[in-house]
Design goal:
It contains three helices and no strands. It is mainly α and 126 residues long.
Amino acid sequence: MLDFIKIALAEGHNKFLGAIAPDCDPTAATSSGGCGGSQLIQLGVNIVQFLIDISILIAVVLFLWGGFLFLTSGGSEKQITSGRKTITNAVIGIVIVLGSWIIINTFLTLLTNCTGEWWKFKSLNC
C-alpha cells in the first residue's frame, strides 16, 4: 500500500491530484538532470495545486453535508440554520482558496520563468 502511494505521488498516476515530486534526479548534478532551483519552484507549484485539489474536495463534501442538513431539517430552525451556515462556510472557503490561487499564480508568473497559461495552474512548468 505504501509503495502505491509513493508511486502515485512521484509519477502522477492520479490525474486529479497529479504528481507532487518534480521529475529530476536528486543524486545527480544540476547540469546533468539533477534537481535545481526550477525544480524547487515546480515542487512548490505542485504542493499548492495538491492543496487546492484537496480543498475543493472538502468544499464539495461540506456543500453536500449542508444540503443534507437543510433537507432533513423537518422544520427544525436549529438544523436549517446549521445547514445554511455550513453551505455559507463552504462558499467562503472556496472564495479564499481561489483568491489565494490568483495571488500565488500571479507571483509565480511575474517573478519566475514558469511557462504556461495563467488561468490553468496545472499547466505551469518551471
